[in-house]
Write a structure and sequence with these properties.
This protein is mostly helical. It has helices at 2-9, 20-25, 45-54, 70-78, 90-116; strands at residues 15-18, 37-40. A two-stranded antiparallel sheet has the order 1-2. The longest helix has 27 residues, at 90-116.
Amino acid sequence: MTLIRQALENEGIEVNLLNEKTLQLSSVYALGNHGAEVQVREKDVEKAVLILTQSGFVLPHQEGKTNQFSLLNKLVNFTDSIPFLKDVQREIRMVFALFLLLVLVISIILLFMFLVK
């Protein structure tokens, strides 16, 4: 994380690293898939992504390839619009989104079984 901070600050970009101390005390596995978050000012986002990509910290975006968790990310982002969930931690919203997805799949299976009989 220190290398990321240095790479950005050397280019004059103000950076805030969330979960930096947790990563220093434990490991990346302690944070699950969430990892650490790099925050920069909105005006510096494109420059920061370019710097981190060129430095090897971020993989370049490849057209046509999708994130293996894109459906889950869309569901979690959808939970932002639910008033009682928007202030809840992302991990808890992820569990809620998985629960909703599971209920939907089970409902479709039960409906199909009912219609077949």
